Amino acid sequence: MKFVDPKNDVAFKKIFGDSHKTEILISFLNSILELPSPIASLTIASPNQVPRIEGLKETVLDVKAIDANGREFIVEMQVEGNELFGKRALYYAAKSYVGQIKKAEHYSNLNPVYFVGILDFNLFDGKNYTTRHIIINQQSGAQDLQDIELNFIELKKFEKEASELTSVMDKWIYFIKNAEELKIIPAVMTEPEIKEAFESADQHNWSADDMEVYDYWSAKKGDEICQLITAERKGLAIGMTKGIEKGKAEGLEEVVVNCIKQGMDNDTISNITGLSIEEVESIRI
What we know:
This protein has two domains: 9-206, no CATH class; 223-284, no CATH class. Helices cover 43% and strands 13% of the residues. It has nine helices and eight strands. It has a six-stranded mixed beta sheet, sandwiched between helices. Helix 6 (208-250) packs antiparallel against helix 7 (252-261) and helix 8 (266-273) packs across helix 9. The longest helix is centred in the C-terminal third of the chain and has 43 residues, at 208-250. The radius of gyration is 24 Å and the shape is globular.
């Protein structure tokens, strides 16, 4: 078997946003969220959050769903590192919450919004690969305001092997992180919903048109990452050039000290400054 990468936007939406296979999303959300009552059924909603006021920004979400109790669930897959993703998550959740009612309608019509961000980068300090962010009364510690909740999964921090998986949550996270590298469904994956997700991810079940879109999106994301790396390298080169120019005016020693602070070795600093390795080493000492 050959599986697509669930982290790919096209694949993620096809697996978790399929209105004919909502049991997949239900199982995933029930395993991740600490809900007062589990999700029994849900409807996949339009991924477009259209603003009520002209001129406001329209938001396109990866997956959005509403359960039988009116609770809203937003699931976002984010591959590229983004230190502002927390603010983005707050924006998505708040916009979804506000968009439930019109001005003249009663606030009692507002239902909880749960955001789940799956990140292929580290956003928070600490070793926990899942974090739950809720509004807490600082004095009492009680969760008096319960309508907006943010949950994050940081895939880079998840290091469990298939043999170490015990919870349904960990099995889902393992699937999202590792499915592309697998040839068979691990024996530990006994849940029918996870097996169904693997079947949805099996490239043999994808049409040629679907695979073309998938490959195009993978290439597009790859190009974006290469552009970011190129931009970073150009920025570093410009910064070094400026540093050398400044060194000529104020003394190469300052440039060397800065390079040492950045963890550069003597050979690299020598190439940048034109100083001998011995001269660099004398400054380092």
